Amino acid sequence: MIYLWHNTTLGIYEMGNQADFAVQESLHDVTSVYEFEMDELRFAEKILTNLNRASGELKSSLAVA
């Protein structure tokens, strides 16, 4: 199982296995947890990339405004 989550402390989306998620959850404020099967890894990676790109663009837009 692969987990995708939003680390609100750092303001980024992250992905990892259950152990990675447990560590991050104990260290940071984590929200929006999604679970993927291992055969869906490629899709999860694309989602992670797009979420971080969109988040960065939003931060840039807000900084300019």
Quick gist of this model?
The protein has 65 residues and is an alpha+beta fold. The protein has two helices and three strands, in the order E-E-H-E-H.
Could you explain how this protein is built, in words?
This protein has one domain. The model has no long low-confidence stretch (mean pLDDT 90). It has a 3-stranded antiparallel beta sheet, with helices on both faces. By secondary structure, it is α+β, with helices and mostly antiparallel strands. The protein is built from 2 helices and 3 strands, in the order E-E-H-E-H. The longest helix has 24 residues.
Topology:
Blueprint: E1 2-7, E2 12-16, H1 18-27, E3 30-36, H2 41-64
Antiparallel strand pairs: 1-2, 1-3
The end-to-end span amounts to 40 Å
Strand order of the largest sheet: 2-1-3
Strand content: 25-35%
Radius of gyration: 13 Å
Shape: flat
User: Pairing-aware structural class of the strands and helices?
Assistant: alpha+beta
- Range of helix content: 40-55%
- What can be said about the biggest beta sheet? 3 strands, antiparallel
Query: What's the number of helices?
Result: 2
- Helices and strands, in order, run as EEHEH
Mean pLDDT score, rounded? 90
